[in-house]
Amino acid sequence: MKLLKEKIEQEGEVLSDVVLKVDSFLNHQIDPFLMKEIGDEFAKRYSDQIITKVLTIESSGIAPATFLGLTLGAPVVFARKRKSLTLTDNLYTSKVHSFTKNETNEISVSQKFITADDNVVIIDDFLANGEALKGLIDIVNQAGATIIGAGIVIEKGFQQGGKALREQGLRIESLANIKSLANGKVEFYD
Amino acid sequence: MKLLKEKIEQEGEVLSDVVLKVDSFLNHQIDPFLMKEIGDEFAKRYSDQIITKVLTIESSGIAPATFLGLTLGAPVVFARKRKSLTLTDNLYTSKVHSFTKNETNEISVSQKFITADDNVVIIDDFLANGEALKGLIDIVNQAGATIIGAGIVIEKGFQQGGKALREQGLRIESLANIKSLANGKVEFYD
Ligand SMILES: Nc1nc2c(ncn2[C@@H]2O[C@H](COP(=O)(O)OP(=O)(O)O)[C@@H](OP(=O)(O)OP(=O)(O)O)[C@H]2O)c(=O)[nH]1
Ligand SMILES: Nc1nc2c(ncn2[C@@H]2O[C@H](COP(=O)(O)OP(=O)(O)O)[C@@H](OP(=O)(O)OP(=O)(O)O)[C@H]2O)c(=O)[nH]1
């Protein structure tokens, strides 16, 4: 996605060989116009499918997912990483491992909000090792719903998450796919 | 806001005399069309002001705030409740007390994203005791920016947060203001 790649080139900060900082438009400050364009781009990529639900995870996935939901006319659900005041229903839960923190966390979605009739697109901001995405897939499977595919704003293709999941048959649409962050530079796959 | 009050009446669950659950459209599942209408309503309420920035806090404030930002053409910043991978800059921080959990947490905003030239509207989903809102106000003050006002989706007017802050001169626009949650029923101020 041209606009997104330009934003990454102009505003992204390469913090290390493996971390790209995009706090100015995606992870802390949000560019609403860009989010709308991202939502529309995901909708375009999946225009061949019927989607009844958009699933994401708090917090950075919320804005991209909500704009996709707006364009599709579909509700958006965000998985919780921590208990919230009103998350009192029966829940689907899954474990998500963090390599950086060397810990495992539980994510939750109320059983009310994904049912076996749903056709789900899973949205997230980054795809690196794919642990969060695997957890969301697990939840959709527990619900007996259909996974239409995933939509990722920025994939770090040099990390293995995307490759492994595509080999298992998951459709993944990334709006920018990074080949390398070496030498402080962002290099895209194309 | 009529549409919002109808949604609350149709889908809200009164969990106790002090807690209203609206997980089906605001706090876990998100109704994107409603969020767009909420953003437009906030923009209408503040159409007499120049707003350069929308400030909110993760997670439930993000969708309402982002739609306001879209309508205004203004960037949106969400305060972090926990350290994130790329929150590495100089930060403005503030302490937010939780009565329910009887604990105090630190919230953070990068100094890059609010400056003294900003005219800020603060957005959040609920206003109860006002602790989160006070923390966000504190951060805007540390930045030397101007607080135009707050925009709250659902105020629980029977709790004291709104009253105290309005007495201190803060403009607060609530889209629904709840007078009572007694006897399992939602009663609005009107
Ligand atoms: N900016 C940035 N973030 C990256 C990058 N690679 C991974 N992340 C984000 O870091 C977080 C994952 O960290 P961990 O759970 O510790 O997992 P990991 O070490 O196994 O990658 C996720 O944030 P998250 O769940 O999206 O958190 P939130 O922002 O939604 O709160 C993920 O999106 C990167 O190159 N740049
Ligand atoms: N659904 C619902 N939520 C309420 C109600 N009253 C307060 N809250 C939410 O509860 C959370 C505040 O809880 P605490 O920090 O424990 O504070 P408190 O006990 O002093 O109220 C906030 O969530 P938050 O920061 O918005 O969390 P998040 O949803 O953004 O993750 C606030 O918006 C209510 O009647 N109904």
TrEMBL record, chains A, B:
UniProtKB keywords: Cytoplasm, Glycosyltransferase, Purine salvage, Transferase
Name of the protein described by the UniProt record: Xanthine phosphoribosyltransferase
Catalytic class of the enzyme: transferase
GO molecular function per UniProt: xanthine phosphoribosyltransferase activity
Name of one Pfam family that matches: Pribosyltran
List of residues binding 5-phospho-alpha-D-ribose 1-diphosphate: 128-132
Lineage: Bacteria, Bacillati, Bacillota, Bacilli, Bacillales
Residues reported to bind xanthine: 20, 27, 156
Lineage top rank: taxon: Bacteria
Record's catalysed reaction(s): XMP + diphosphate = xanthine + 5-phospho-alpha-D-ribose 1-diphosphate
Cellular compartments annotated: Cytoplasm
Record function comment: Converts the preformed base xanthine, a product of nucleic acid breakdown, to xanthosine 5'-monophosphate (XMP), so it can be reused for RNA or DNA synthesis.
Known partners and oligomeric status: Homodimer.
Pathway participation: Purine metabolism; XMP biosynthesis via salvage pathway; XMP from xanthine: step 1/1
Residue ranges constituting the Phosphoribosyltransferase domain according to the UniProt record: 39-157
Gene source species: Solibacillus merdavium
EC number(s) from the headed UniProt entry: 2.4.2.22
UniProt family annotation: Belongs to the purine/pyrimidine phosphoribosyltransferase family. Xpt subfamily.
